[in-house]
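User: Here's a structure from my thesis project, written as structure tokens. My advisor, Dr. K., wants to see whether a designed sequence matches the one we expressed. Can you design one independently, without my sequence as a hint?
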């Protein structure tokens, strides 16, 4: 019997999502409109009544809008981690600012707070921590440091729905902005999409305007308010980053199941931890006691006593028809970042060491117990 390939990631789209998309298509309003408004207000309700949620067409767009609203511009320095996806740092360059990369903490795989402190200069304008894999960064220490220096903080929360930090959901912490991703393989999806969350009304207003060409009211309001429908004013050279109602239709129903998705992912993480306990494999770091891990990724690290290197391990997994990935090829190894900012692997020993040994295994709500067992068996064969 030939087994089918088990993909590294798959979204879980239900009949409710499909019905809502059809309803939207039939309604005649397919761009930003009532479904986006509903998704935004549902998202705020999910997190906390005192935050404002702004739908955008990707997390990358949200991160760009967030930095812009924080006033980051030419020559400003923004500190972030090398151990992330390129989107976290590219938005800094969009604004002509300078990314300052620091290493991660060996215990959390998130940004190292002491390294952040050492990287602060008079030009540091903002810090972008990443909740790697869905486990919260040490936000308590980071916020203390940032407020002591008067530096803004925007969380790259692309992995972090739902994640808690010291008992509070990411999105409700004391940072200025959090940005979530609904890309196809994230913990929930809208196909492409993102959500910028803030408590700051000035930031919310700026983002609302800049996500749609810098116009002083969005198209939906334009057609429902008392002003003449044709009238608008352009107040800044904004962007085209609005979310569509088609995307929001998917998001509304994904969000309703996000806790169930998290429980399923957490259960798979528990099964993996138990199954690999006797192998030369370091499991992913657990959250601080009592906190919730979103389990976007399950990243193992091959130990020194494993009989196989990372690349051969992944080849072995693919030979057994199990998809794997690597999170991340650190930014300091990519030609653009490495050459532009003269980054070397010696500057980021922890990230470099993780990169050389890490493998991300499949972890998603659609996996059956049989799928999990297949991964476990494949791992046991691959470690040799
Ligand atoms: C996925 C991801 C992004 C970008 O999300 P998009 O919605 O695809 O733009 C940004 N940062 C991190 C850490 C990510 O994993």
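Assistant: Designed independently from the structure alone:
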């Amino acid at each position: 019997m030939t087994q089918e390939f088990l993909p590294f990631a798959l979204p879980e789209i239900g009949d409710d999502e499909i019905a809502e998309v059809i309803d939207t298509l039939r309604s005649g309003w397919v761009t930003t409109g009532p479904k986006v408004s509903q998704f935004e207000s549902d998202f705020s309700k999910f997190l906390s009544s005192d935050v404002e949620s702004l739908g955008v067409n990707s997390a990358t767009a949200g991160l760009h809008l967030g930095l812009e609203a924080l006033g980051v511009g030419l020559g400003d320095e923004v500190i972030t981690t090398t151990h992330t996806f390129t989107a976290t740092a590219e938005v800094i360059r969009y604004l002509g600012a300078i990314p300052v990369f620091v290493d991660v903490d060996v215990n959390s795989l998130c940004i190292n707070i002491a390294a952040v402190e050492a990287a602060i200069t008079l030009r540091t304008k903002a810090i972008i921590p990443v909740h790697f894999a869905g486990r919260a960064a040490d936000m308590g220490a980071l916020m203390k440091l940032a407020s002591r220096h008067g530096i803004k903080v925007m969380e790259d929360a692309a992995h972090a729905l739902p994640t808690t930090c010291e008992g509070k959901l990411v999105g409700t912490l004391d940072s200025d902005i959090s940005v979530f991703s609904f890309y196809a393989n994230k913990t929930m999806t809208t196909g492409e999409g993102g959500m910028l969350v803030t408590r700051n009304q000035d930031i919310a207003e700026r983002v609302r305007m800049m996500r749609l060409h810098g116009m002083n009211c969005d198209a939906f309001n334009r057609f429902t308010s008392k002003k003449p429908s044709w009238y608008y004013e352009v107040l800044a050279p904004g962007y085209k980053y609005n979310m569509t109602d088609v995307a929001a239709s998917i998001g509304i129903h994904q969000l309703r199941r996000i806790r169930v998705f998290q429980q399923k992912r957490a259960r798979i993480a528990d099964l993996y931890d138990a199954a690999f306990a006797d192998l030369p494999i370091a499991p992913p770091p657990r959250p601080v006691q009592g906190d919730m891990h979103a389990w976007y990724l399950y990243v193992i690290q091959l130990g020194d006593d494993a009989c196989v290197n990372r690349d051969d391990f992944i080849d072995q997994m693919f030979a057994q028809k199990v998809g794997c990935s690597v999170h991340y090829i650190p930014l300091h190894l990519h030609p653009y970042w490495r050459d532009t900012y003269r980054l070397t692997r010696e500057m980021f020993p922890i990230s470099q060491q993780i990169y050389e040994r890490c493998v991300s295994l499949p972890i998603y709500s659609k996996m059956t117990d049989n799928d999990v067992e297949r991964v476990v068996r494949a791992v046991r064969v691959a470690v040799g």
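When you compare it with your expressed construct, this may help: The chain has two domains: 15-256, 258-383.
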